[in-house]
Amino acid sequence: MEELSLAGGKAHVAADRAELARAAAEAVASAARTAVAARGRFALALSGGSTPRDLYRLLAADPLTAAMPWPAVHLYWGDERCVPPDHVESNFRMVREALLDKVPIPAGNVHRIPAEDPDSERAAERYEAELRASFGLGPLELPRFDLVLLGLGLDGHTASLFPGTGAVAVSDRLCFALRVEKLATHRITLSLPVLNAARGVAFLAAGADKAEPLRALAAGARSADELPAGAVRPRDGELAFWLDREAASLLPR
Known about the structure:
Layout: E1 2-6, E2 9-14, H1 17-39, E3 42-46, H2 50-59, H3 64-67, E4 73-77, E5 79-81, H4 91-98, H5 120-135, E6 147-150, E7 175-180, E8 185-190, H6 192-196, E9 200-205, H7 211-219, E10 238-244
Parallel strand pairs: 2-10, 3-4, 3-6, 6-9, 9-10
Antiparallel strand pairs: 1-2, 5-8, 7-8
Helix pairs in contact: 1-2
């Protein structure tokens, strides 16, 4: 697998989507075992999208599911659409179908965003309270995820930090709601400071349509509000990109 430097992190370039999903899933399982051995739990923030879904399906099947320390794994979501958990657009539903229904993870270890609440601000406040309780945080502390999985939008958004919305500037919340006008929808997302407090952040991107936003990340010439994904730089953690060859086609060698 080819390795490149990208945006202050390391990019792992697979030949195709299948190799990408397999290598990334193995990396997640390894991170889980390391975290549980060191701290007794593994806190993982999940992403929506087709590439992460392939990874989740591999984690739900042998040999990886047998290698995962499921009783000590705690799952969270990086963002969610404001829909019920059984809605076709729900990130939670996708993860449940691909992973949760097939693995022995305790129900209390699954921390979903209550996005069905008609008041999205209240839903974000409820999830922030859940994060504080689950991580045992004080008033000014940030949760420290062992690993955050992120996607990359064609416009450079990640989680639900969209360009031109000022979302990357939110620093006084762990989680917040926002209106994405171009999609005519509300989202709930973890804030940038939470992403950057993680021990590890991994972007997953596949396909030729991701080549241009990755090239923009490599160039580093856009502001954080123009290219929110470029603002994800863990302060004291590792940044990785798991890509297929098509997504990495415009990156400098």
